[in-house]
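Problem 12. The chain below contains 141 residues. Write out its predicted structure in token notation.
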Amino acid sequence: MSVATTEKEPVQVTSLPTTLPLATPINLTERAAAQVKQIIQQEKEKKEQAGAPVAKIYLRLVVRGAGCSGFKDSLELEDTINPKMDNVFEVHGVDVVIDRRSELYLQGATVDFHNELNRQGFSIGNPNAKTTCGCGSSYSM
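Solution.
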């Protein structure tokens, strides 16, 4: 039996990225993203008028120990991040920052914005919350 040999073309190996994009642990609704973009633009304009322009403003989600049930989610605007402690995710054109500890508690959370007569502002729905306090401002896990 004879085996035919053929010359093979050299295979080009391309380098893989050293870091893969992180999956976004939270959901930011388009309605919330639009509102955040407006607020960020207003903050940038204020800082420019005060003579302290910033290149970027981030939306930070953080979980803190607070309230009568133990944990409280919070939204903040920041113009700096700590690359050793924070992960940055782009959701609907908004740069969202979550520190690694808070990220554990926020998996699957949804940030929404409401503009209704009896409910205005941002809300964070966290599926990891087991129980909430009477006023609904804090939760336990």
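Discussion. The chain is about 20% helix and 35% strand. Students who got a different answer should revisit the alignment rule from Section 12.3.
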